[in-house]
Amino acid sequence: MAEEKKRTRRANGESAIYLGKDGRWHARVPMGYKDDGSPYRRHLTRPTRKELVDEVRRLEKQRDEGSARQPGKPWTVAKWLEHWVENIAKPVVSENTYAGYEVAVRVHLVPGIGRHRIDRLEPEHLESLYRRMQSAGSKAGTAHQAHRTARTALGEAVRRGHAAKNAAALAKPPRMEEDETEVEPYSVDEVQSLLLEVNKRRNSARWMLALALGLRQGETLGLRWSDVDLDNEYLKLRRNRLRPKYEHGCSETAPCGRKAGYCPARVQVRRETKNTKSRAGRRAVPLPGPLVVTLRSHREVQARERAAAGNLWTESEYVFTKPLGGPLSPNTDYHDWKRLLEDAGVRNGRLHDARHTAGTVLMLLGVPDRVIDQIMGWEPGGAARMRARYLHVTDPMLKEAARKIERAIWGAPENLAVDKDQDNEA
After folding, report:
1. Which of 373, 402, 407, 415 lies closest to 283, judged by CA?
2. For residues 311 and 322, what is the distance between their CA atoms, to the nearest angstrom?
3. Beta partners for residue 240, in sequence order
4. H-run or E-run covering 28
5. pLDDT surpasses 60 at 361
6. Mind listing the pLDDT tens digit for each residue in 15-61?
7. How far apart are CA 271 and CA 241, in angstroms?
8. Distance of alpha carbon 239 from its chain centroid, rounded?
9. Which long-range contacts (CB under 8 A, 24 or more apart) does 43-50 make?
């Protein structure tokens, strides 16, 4: 026992195990270094040496794997999520992605699970949150957004050693209802009805690009005239228009009392556009003849608007602008789409449904998959998955398939008529 009590010099990084004066076994396990550079050791104590050795080996394994809790007071879920979204995610993700994360953290995750310690959070805590969200009226898609945000944030916490497991990766998100994900593209007749109404409106080419080529809203509103080559009949897509974000410009001593977006002195705090992040998104898209004609006319109309506005015109180089220049707001564009549907007598739908429609029409016309991928801007690795999501089998396709089966098995329709006449004569 005297030999067990004796302390000897240890190699760097080796744990110290000794019998204390209190009769219990103690260990000092090196775990790395603190923020100030000083060594950090974890103190353990157990009644028997065997129990202590087992615990030391478990802790050393966590340390070596990088999953052990780091020194300092454990994070709460709320403190970690707020730190993660502002200091880790915000500098490296797009503005739109950050906006989605920020809402999920502030509105749902922090109020719902924020008081838990991050190293004691369980999958059941998250599953209970998702149920409460839906009971309060949130759609399954909103709960899924919260789930994806939590999974990403907690994954970073695990990589940094603040938690041993990612509770969100183990939790089961709510099942998405079919009616939330199913999209019915517009038929060719509906597209033609929309195009007839589009011809009566300002910025008509904006809607033609959406219906004929499936351009995303951000891609269309971010187009500049330098991206459009009407002589060679194509345009280049290389940037996206971002949704504006405002902060109050009024003074704290005399607040306007409105939301930031309606403040008379509001300040724009988000850049107008960002470059397309994926290589497939930066692409050239061919322009059908009618679109070339419409864009030429649109450029002439815009030149007349500029001349009429004089000093009131806001120069921007955007293809689609407000009546006095400057980029179109995505929110205004969305409401214009809703009015277009109503005026054309076409069923209500999302603006993004026009993209599903364009992709389906390309498939209906027999355009090769590789060309569809180029026009739609899909990455080669995920193009098959995107085609399955965006290209829809329509009733005309099913009927054509039935006719082909009929001709292959029973022969041409005229042969069927001859066979029936022969049967009647017999």
Report:
1. 373
2. 15
3. 274
4. strand 25-33
5. yes
6. 889 999 999 999 998 887 766 677 878 888 999 999 999 988 988 88
7. 9
8. 17
9. 45/20, 49/4, 49/17, 49/19, 49/25
Mean pLDDT of 191-213: 90
The strand order across the sheet containing 39-46 reads 16-19, 25-33, 39-46
pLDDT at 9: 46
Assess contact for 362 and 375: CB atoms under 8 A. Answer: yes
Comparing CA positions, the residue from 423, 425, 361, 421 lying closest to residue 396 is 361
Please, how many CA atoms are within 13 Å of residue 136, restricted to the half-sphere of its CB? 12
What is the DSSP secondary structure assignment for residue 359, as one 8-state letter?
A: H
Q: Is the pLDDT of residue 184 over 50?
A: yes
Could you tell me the CA-to-CA distances from 332 to 70, 162, 388 in Å, in that order?
49, 44, 31
The vertex-339 CA angle with 337 and 343, nearest 5°, equals 120
A 10 A CB-CB count for 292 gives: 20
Return all residues near 71 (Cβ < 8 A) that are at least 6 apart: 31, 32, 34, 40
Place of tokens 């042969």: 415
Where does residue 308 rank: exposed (0-12), middle (13-18), buried (19+ CB within 10 A)? exposed
* Mean confidence (pLDDT) of the chain: 84
User: What is the rounded CA–CA span in Å between residue 57 and residue 4?
Assistant: 18
* Cβ neighbours for 58, distance < 8 A, ≥ 6 positions apart: none
Beta bridge mates, 268: 246
Using CA atoms, how far apart are residues 94 and 274, in angstroms rounded to an integer?
8
Contact 317, 225 (CB under 8 A): yes
**Which two three-digit tokens encode residue 233?**
């009949």
89-147 tens-digit pLDDT: 999 887 778 889 999 999 999 999 999 999 899 999 999 999 999 999 998 889 999 99
